Amino acid sequence: MNILAVGAHPDDIEISCAGTLAKLKQAGHHIVLCHACKGDKGHYHIPADELTEIRRQEAREAGALIGSEVLSLEFGDGEIIADNQENRMMFVDMVRYAKPDIVITHAPNDYMPDHIAVSQLVFYATFFATLPNMKTSSEAAQNVSALYYMDNLSGLGFEPTFYVDVTDHFATKIEMLSKHQSQLVWLKEHDNVDIVDFVTTFGKTRGIQAGCTYAEAFVQHLVWTRPNAVRFPV
Question: InterPro entries of this UniProt entry (predicted)?
């Protein structure tokens, strides 16, 4: 299968679903990671242009740990708008390029505007990517992708419909997250959060709920036209 994970910023995917992606990659599936935004504003001291390059390299190094392709749509942080047709078409073209059977993205009620906008744009794109008269540089997709929402930070307002046991891949998840060194500093300074400890603790919490050591939680977007019988092939 082709799996497309779309996060607002570099490190969002690693925080919420990298264990599952590592597990899927080990099982032989093709993984594409897409970051909508450059992450250019997530630091107190590093200027935006310099930070963009740092975060781009961090994302590539994280993706390389599981042999995934890494894309960026190059929006500035705080500049992505869901009800803008140009933005929508960029997401449509990205979905068509990746040809995903399964798409993973932010939940519609996530904690900050970029995440919410990405969730809405992915929902839009996974449907309209199948319409041939919606013209982009890539051919129309053959089928509407199955759509899954990854966990919110700390799980607030998120009621999982299923869990993935990532115990055997949790070390890879943490290694991927640790490639985002600029954000380990930023999250400590801005939010007073040790994000590695945060993710580890939360992974254990979801693991308790799922009956394993570490787990990641998801909600499947169940609506008509989606392949609702599809489950993560892990």
Answer: GlcNAc_PI_deacetylase-related
